[in-house]
Amino acid sequence: MRYFEDFKVGEVTEVGPVSVSEAEIVEFASRYDPQPFHIDPEAAKSSPFGGLIASGWHTTALFMGMFVRGILLDSASLGSPGVEEIRWTAPVRPGDRLTGRVTVTDVQPSANTPGRGTVFTTNEVFNQNGERVMTLKARGFFARRAAN
């Protein structure tokens, strides 16, 4: 179990991988982001992307799954107050295999809640070619170890 004190500035954790299928792209976008270049392979051919691409929100959700499985499930996570920034830097396409890189950029004990601290991260998602497809800056709350 990792607690707030176990996260160190500069620490890098690789998460994933996860593969993306055309059916998954269409299913997600049909429910949450039904733009033609996300749900219609034929219409997507004439889009600026030249083919079907995943919604950026789908890419974010895929990263979240990798982050939870790679870090949060084995930690004393107390949730998150949100993210500072999300950037979708390249399209995610059917057949892509994504991995993530989580870099701890700061750690701050809470001034108001002694049993908690905040871990700040810069997160990157890459496709199988090493192309960065997303960045996300976030913060998460983690329980502190009980005093001995």
Helix content: 10-25%
Give the uncertain stretches in residue-range form. none
CATH superfamily: Hotdog Thioesterase
Shape: elongated
Number of strands: 5
Instruction: State the order of secondary-structure elements, H for helix, E for strand.
Output: EHHHHEEEE
Quaternary status: single chain
What is the topology?
Layout: E1 12-19, H1 22-32, H2 36-39, H3 41-45, H4 56-70, E2 82-88, E3 97-109, E4 116-126, E5 132-143
Antiparallel strand pairs: 1-3, 2-5, 3-4, 4-5
Structural account:
The chain is of the alpha+beta class. It has a single domain (4-143), classed as Roll (Thiol Ester Dehydrase, Chain A). It is built from 4 helices and 5 strands; from the N terminus they run βααααββββ. The protein has helices at residues 22-32, 36-39, 41-45, 56-70; strands at residues 12-19, 82-88, 97-109, 116-126, 132-143. Strands 1-3-4-5-2 form a 5-stranded antiparallel sheet, covered by helices on one side.
Summarize the structure.
This protein has one domain (4-143): Roll (Thiol Ester Dehydrase, Chain A). The protein is built from 4 helices and 5 strands.
Considering the chains and any ligands shown, give keywords for the structure.
4 helices; 148 residues; Thiol Ester Dehydrase, Chain A
